[in-house]
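User: Fold this; tokens only.

Assistant: Input:
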Amino acid sequence: MTNETLLALVGFALAASITPGPNNMMVFAATVNFGFFEPCRIYRAWSRGLRC
């Protein structure tokens, strides 16, 4: 398991333990595909309940 995949898994586990809902899998997929910092705008919008 690469460090990037492990970081994505840890981020997903943290998000899944704090917030319920289907956005958790979308956060996990975005982190795996684009890294942590690239989709930060999307993370902020999801945390506020806004559409991107």
